[in-house]
């Protein structure tokens, strides 16, 4: 499928997904070259969603899995998510009232 200037490959078969992501993981793990603008927003390709597959990406992923999506850490940080959600909703309500939206 063509998405702008990029070609996307959509895989819907579980066997092909396993082949592409498990058996051929390193082959398909890297991302296409970035435009100069995207490089600015990708933190110099040093974030988990922009780093090329390799030692840095594996380190970022390991840190993400052990520190951020670990069930114990999710429970410990629930207050932060609650606080952020409440403030976000307050801001949306305030802005909608200021702009005459209800």
TrEMBL record:
Segments traversing the membrane: none
MF terms in GO: heme binding; iron ion binding; monooxygenase activity; oxidoreductase activity, acting on paired donors, with incorporation or reduction of molecular oxygen
Short name of one Pfam family: p450
InterPro entries found in the cross-reference section: Cyt_P450, Cyt_P450_sf
Keyword Cell membrane carried by entry: no
Cofactor(s) the protein requires to work: heme
Keywords: Heme, Iron, Metal-binding, Monooxygenase, Oxidoreductase
Family statement drawn from the similarity comment of this UniProt entry: Belongs to the cytochrome P450 family.
Record-given protein name: Cytochrome P450
Organism expressing this protein natively: Salix udensis
């Amino acid at each position: 499928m063509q998405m702008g200037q990029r070609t996307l490959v959509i895989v819907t078969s579980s066997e092909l997904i396993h082949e592409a992501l498990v058996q051929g993981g390193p082959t398909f793990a890297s991302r296409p070259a970035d435009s100069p603008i995207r490089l600015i927003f990708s933190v110099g390709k040093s974030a988990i969603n922009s780093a090329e597959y390799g030692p840095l990406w594996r380190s970022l992923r390991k840190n993400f899995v052990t520190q951020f999506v670990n069930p114990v850490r999710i429970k410990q940080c629930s207050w932060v998510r609650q606080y952020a959600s409440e403030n976000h909703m307050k801001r949306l309500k305030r802005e909608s009232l200021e702009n005459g939206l209800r």
